């Protein structure tokens, strides 16, 4: 089943993508639209409250990411960087990693082996506000 689990902890948006991160006609299974909506709400709140956005995307249970899913990651990354925050992909499965390598997108994304190491990277950068 395609699903998104998210929480905000210490101003870090932590998102787990379960299943296939693809756009579909069925709104119940379209994780890309759900992801975009959740991230947009978080980014808008950060911008309004003058907080730096930090996003961790946990891909441990992600089976597939297609071009639309990659586009959502890139858009999220651009906005997060514009607001001087960080976006980190964690637990990247081999299939997704191969896609990042083939598309040469591996060079623009920060990755980490675990959520704990991603949180440490964010704290080391000190991105807690504008």
From TrEMBL:
Residues 1-122 form the STAS domain. It comes from Candidatus Komeilibacteria bacterium CG_4_10_14_0_2_um_filter_37_10. CDD domains: STAS_anti-anti-sigma_factors (cd07043). Gene3D superfamilies: STAS domain (3.30.750.24). This is STAS domain-containing protein.
